[in-house]
Fold this protein.
Amino acid sequence: MERHVILLNGPSSSGKSTLARALQETILGKRMERYEVVSIDDFLKMSPTETIYEDDVFEISDDLCKRVLEILDTDTGVIIDHVITSERIFTHLKENLSSCHMHMICITCPLQLLRQREAARGDRSPGSAEASAQYLFPKEGYDLVVDTGMKSPSENALLIFNTVFHA
C-alpha cells in the first residue's frame, strides 16, 4: 500500500489543526484507514511571550521527520500540520520524506480572520499569525489551496480527500 503524507502548510491560526482532525475523520469514514496527525506544535513550546523563529523550527525538523517515518512504518498515512516559513525548512522536509508520496495542501484564510483567531486562542506571540502568512513557503506549487474562512472544516476536508485520493 502506498504511504501517503498530506502536508497542511499554512500560517499560524489558519485552522490547520481543526482541518487535520476533520480530514482524519473523513479518511477513516471513506477509506477505513487511520491517518495520524503530526503537528509542529508537538515539537515547539508555544507561548504568547516568546517569538518562534525560523531557526527554532529548523532545529526541530529532524525530530518531526523521524516521527512521520516512524508512524508510516506502522500506519497507512500521516497528516502533517506545519507552518513552513523558509526554503531551508521546506527542502529539509522534502529531502527527509523523499521516500513518501507527499500531497501539498496550502491552508489560507483572510488576514483579519487570522488576527481574530490568534487573539482568541491567546497562546501565540501577537503578530505571529500575520508574520507566518507573509513568510509562508513555498508560495506556489501546491496540489490544492483551501481557504478556511470560506468553507467549513468538513467541506475543506472533503476537498482535500478528493484531491489526494482522486475520488
